[in-house]
Amino acid sequence: MQNDEPFKLFTSIEDARKMVLEQLPFHPDFIKIWYIVSPDSIEASAKKYEPIVRAIVEESHKNNLKVAVHATERITAQLAVESGCDYLVHDVEDEVVSDNFIKLLKTKNVILCPTLIAAAGYDNTFGQKAITLFTI
């Protein structure tokens, strides 16, 4: 990515495929997608960007790269799995996953990482503010 950008918003399939190709000279172990959607229209937003996610997965697999996806809503996780991702790097946070979702993961051979997080004070991290997590 240019200018050391850690994240890039893709609004077209062409740009998404191009990004994968631009990463190849760096010999990445995998491509990671941050599948972040609008909180005001989660399902519509997830479906809008699904073709871009699918294109990244297809281009990555064509170049022998696995794809990891940050998808914390059930719909984004489901669409990522249906699009062919290899890993979900976090749990679904917005609902209890169904048996059908678990079957989908197993059928598609997708690994889900049940991420353990320390959320208290996370927003203060970059401000380097000291916080008290608990008292005795």
From TrEMBL:
Q: Which InterPro entries match?
A: Metal_Hydrolase, Metallo-dep_Hydrolase
Q: Which domain of life is it from?
A: Bacteria
**Annotated protein name in UniProt:** Amidohydrolase-related domain-containing protein
